[in-house]
Amino acid sequence: MPVVILGVFVADTTYRADRAPRMGETIMGNSFALGPGGKGSNQAVACAKAGGEAHFISKLGIDPFADMALKVWGAAGVTPAVTQHEDMATGAAYIFVEEATGDNAIIICPGVAGTISAADIEARGDLIGGADVFMTQLEQPMQAAQRALEIARAGGATTILNPAPAAEIADEMLALCDYVTPNESETESITGLPVSTLDEAREAAEHLLAKDVSCAIITLGENGALYHSATESVHVPAMDAGAVVETTGAGDAFNGGFAAALAEGRAPLEAVRFGCATAAISVTRPGTAPSMPARAEIDALLAKQG
């Protein structure tokens, strides 16, 4: 069953140095890496590699970064529903990493994907309306995300909003969502409530349900995830797939795996466990899209957990 994902692709350009340069200063860096990024793109890759029929809606330029995107999607089995534009660039992100601490500072430029409009969404109405599961985030314009959720809901799709990066979200947009999947900091930003304990997470999730969200799933990093609906509240522990190498992209792995599991008819709680397994494997590898596990790996970890 098709999973349709709306989002942004950006090329991650990562620079590691002892410190950030001051304005007007040039310093030598220690290393550089170039790789695929963007939440929506990462989620589409995770979904496809987990066995989902993933379709990705976005915009690209006509440049080497667009070539990278198409190559990554082709290798993962993602079906692109993208337009390419020669007058604007594909998105990119500057990521500075301080060598000693690992702390980072990031500048994201969505490029042409920042122009995705409600009209662009209308042009993909048949694809969105025919989805079994539809998922989006907030890296593209909010109006586009809301219109896509409206079309998906009208078509009978299960709708997922991963509210990242955190932003103020209208109540009418939240009411279009079967599942909202923020992490702890995003939950705090959206609800104004602290999320430092499981009880606090439940209180924040209840706040989201009061906005007519059908179910809140708060991802809790090394503590797993909280599934909270009107009828049940279940803490799903994290799974151990090995030593943690890099947590970047773990949330995207969870969302992609969760969407794939829902599309194949798994019960919501089972789909959350599937998403947790997907994320657990992804953090044992560097990178975002390159770290997403294959379906056989996810099944093996779930079987091991019992």
TrEMBL record:
It catalyses: D-ribose + ATP = D-ribose 5-phosphate + ADP + H(+). It holds the Pfam family PfkB. It is found in: Cytoplasm. Requires a divalent cation, most likely magnesium in vivo, as an electrophilic catalyst to aid phosphoryl group transfer. It is the chelate of the metal and the nucleotide that is the actual substrate. Its main location: cytoplasm. GO terms for cellular component: cytosol. Activated by a monovalent cation that binds near, but not in, the active site. The most likely occupant of the site in vivo is potassium. Ion binding induces a conformational change that may alter substrate affinity. Keywords: ATP-binding, Carbohydrate metabolism, Cytoplasm, Kinase, Magnesium, Metal-binding, Nucleotide-binding, Potassium, Transferase. Residues 10-294 form the Carbohydrate kinase PfkB domain. Its EC number is 2.7.1.15. Substrate binds at V10, A11, D12, G38, K39, G40, S41, N42, E139, D252. ATP binds at N183, T219, L220, G221, E222, N223, G224, G251, D252. Homodimer. Belongs to the carbohydrate kinase PfkB family. Ribokinase subfamily. Catalyzes the phosphorylation of ribose at O-5 in a reaction requiring ATP and magnesium. The resulting D-ribose-5-phosphate can then be used either for sythesis of nucleotides, histidine, and tryptophan, or as a component of the pentose phosphate pathway. This is Ribokinase. It comes from Candidatus Rhodobacter oscarellae. The gene is rbsK.
